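[job 4471] stage=fold_predict status=RUNNING
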Amino acid sequence: MKRLTFLKLFFAFSVFSLFLTSCGDDINNPIDDNTPASVKLNDALGYIDADSDVALGGSFSVYLTATKGSNPMKTLTILEDGQKIDITTDRISFDGNTGVANPLLLLQDKVNSFEQRITIKAHNSYSVGTYDFVVTDDKGLTSKVSLKINVVGTKVNSLEGILLNQSGPAGQGGLDLDTGASTGTVESDANSKNAEIRDEGVVNINPPYDQTWKQQISGMNGSEIKYIKKGQNGVSESFSFDGIQYKEQVAALWGSGVALTLKSADGKRNVTDKVAKGDIFIVKNGDKYYLLNTKDIVVTQDNNKDSYTFDVKL
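[job 4471] inference complete, writing C-alpha cells
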C-alpha cells in the first residue's frame, strides 16, 4: 500500500516538473513580435540614396525596398518635414504611375517584402526639406529611411548696361541685355539685331523739335516688357531685386508682371510710362528672361546724351 502511494506521488511530481519546465520555456523564450520591418534606399542608376540637390520645379526618384520583421507590413507613408504629402497634388508616383494613396496600403505578397520605385516632385521653394519613407506593420511598429532634398536653382548672371537716348548720334538707343553693350535701333545697324530693349527718343511734334526726352523704353527684336511691382499680381511687398539669385526665379516672375498700356508714337510698340529710378522691369525674348533694375537716370538739358543705367539679371 505504501509502495503504491509512493509511485503515485512520484508520478504526480514528474508531471508537475514537466509543467514547470514547459512554463519556464515560455517565460525565457517568449514569441518575438517586436522587430520592425527593414527598410532601405538602394543605390541604382537614376535613383538617389542620400541627401541631394534638386533644381526648383524638379523631381527626385528613390528605389525603396522593405522586408517584414516580426509581423506582416501594412502601409507605406511618405512624409515631407513630418507631414504626409497630399496625394491629390500629384507629387507622388509609384513605378511610373500617379500615386493613389498616401499612406499606401500594402497588399498580397507586399506584406512580406516589396520593392518600390518612387518619384516625388520636390517642394517649390529654395530650401532644404526632409523626406521620410515610413513602413508600419500590422502591430503598429514603424521603421523609416530619410533623406534631405535641397532645392536649388541656376545662378543668375549679372551685368550693368547703359541705354542711351535714341535721338542722339546714330548707332545708339538700343541695349543688348546679354552683354550690356549699346546698340543702334535701325536694321542697317548690324548690332541692333542683338538688342532686347530700346529708348523712345525725344518729343517730336513739329519743327523746331522739342528736345524734351520722353524717358520711355520699349521692347525690340520681338522682346516683351512688363513691370514688376511690389504687392501686385502676386509679387510680395517685401520683394527685392537683390533677393533674386536664380534664373528660375526670374522666369517665374514673368507671370506676375504688369503689362504695359501705352503705345509708341507710331502705334507699333507697347511702351513704358516715364521711367523712374528704382523701376523694375522683366523682359522676355523667346525663352530668355531678363530682370532689370533702374539704377540711375541721367537727364541733360541741352543735348541728347540722356541715359539710363540698368542692373540686369539673366
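[job 4471] summary: The CA atoms of residues 27 and 106 lie 33 Å apart.
[job 4471] exit 0
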